[in-house]
């Protein structure tokens, strides 16, 4: 017997009062237990879709089911299965982290004794237990983000929706948050992530959908979508200054990042030795090379490129 998806969206449409069609018949399934990325440029429809799923925005047509529960017909039951971490910090900065978590759980009917026990668990997982009795406004930006995730987990949601959870935090803090999110997902919570850090999506997510102009333009397993790339990119570190004019290599794009580094995009089937031969003939000595780390960014840019950008 087939497992009911954590999220099923069918022919979802949203038209605002100014006749702007934000969603144009979006259909999407997210499997239970998945770590799923929802990507798209600004204005693509991500926020509208997340708003509808979390019951903050009314849909115009279509249907949304949370673990088989229809959002419109059984809103309260569906919402009890969802935890939402919005992009904006939206808790009382003059409250203590422990009180923020316990009071939030109370809104959903969690008994205070249980809420206190859960709050300790979640604050420890977020590495905030030592800050439990401090005023929240004294927390760093990264701590506030982790507190938002801890708060969402207080109701033990089966589906956790994260809207730009690491926006504005440095890379070290961001990677620490990745560990927390993996732990939550490994424990069985389905996660949907929206992010502009495509490296984040590539590291964390198994499946993804890319939305643009209100429509899904690509979806599927991360590995399958990345395999569609017919080019590979390398960064070349060179000895000595580069010549004023770089050599031309048919089928490749060769750019100077700075006087000691070259960027090259080339067809997957091309032999690297051919590239090195041309560079050597031009007096360019390659000291070392590495692959470009973010393949997802390359795929994303190709898929959502505007006509005016590619003209």
TrEMBL record:
InterPro entries in the cross-refs: AAA+_ATPase, ABC_transporter-like_ATP-bd, ABC_transporter-like_CS, ABC_transporter_ATP-binding, P-loop_NTPase
Molecular function in Gene Ontology: ATP binding; ATP hydrolysis activity
Keywords assigned by UniProt, alphabetized: ATP-binding, Nucleotide-binding, Transport
The ABC transporter domain, residue ranges: 7-238
PROSITE patterns: ABC_TRANSPORTER_1, ABC_TRANSPORTER_2
Name of the featured protein: ABC transporter
Species: Lysobacter concretionis Ko07 = DSM 16239
């Amino acid at each position: 017997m087939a497992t009911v998806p954590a999220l099923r969206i069918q022919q979802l449409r949203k038209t605002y009062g100014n006749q702007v069609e934000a969603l144009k018949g979006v259909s999407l399934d997210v499997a239970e237990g998945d770590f799923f990325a929802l990507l798209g440029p600004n204005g693509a429809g991500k926020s509208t879709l997340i708003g509808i799923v979390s019951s903050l925005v009314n849909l115009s047509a279509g249907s949304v089911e949370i673990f088989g529960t229809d959002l419109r017909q059984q809103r309260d039951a569906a919402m009890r299965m969802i935890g939402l971490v919005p992009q904006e910090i939206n808790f009382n900065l003059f409250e203590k982290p422990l009180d923020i978590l316990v009071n939030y759980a109370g809104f959903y009917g969690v008994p205070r004794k249980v809420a206190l026990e859960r709050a300790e668990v979640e604050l420890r997982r977020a590495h905030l237990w030592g800050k439990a009795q401090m005023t929240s406004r004294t927390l760093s930006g990264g701590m506030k983000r982790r507190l938002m995730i801890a708060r969402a987990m207080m109701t033990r949601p089966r589906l956790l929706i994260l809207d730009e959870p690491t926006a504005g935090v440095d890379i070290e803090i961001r990677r620490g948050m990745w560990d927390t999110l993996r732990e939550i997902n490994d424990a069985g919570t389905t996660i949907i992530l929206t992010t502009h850090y495509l490296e984040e999506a590539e590291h964390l997510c198994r499946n993804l959908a890319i939305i643009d102009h209100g429509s899904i333009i690509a979806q599927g397993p991360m590995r399958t979508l990345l395999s569609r790339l017919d080019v590979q990119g390398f960064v070349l570190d060179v000895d000595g200054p580069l010549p004023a004019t770089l050599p031309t290599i048919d089928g490749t794009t060769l750019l100077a990042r700075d006087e000691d580094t070259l960027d090259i995009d080339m067809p997957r089937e091309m032999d690297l030795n051919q590239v090195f031969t041309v560079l050597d003939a031009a007096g360019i000595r390659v000291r070392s090379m590495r692959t470009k780390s973010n393949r997802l960014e390359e795929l994303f840019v190709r898929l959502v490129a505007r006509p005016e950008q590619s003209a």
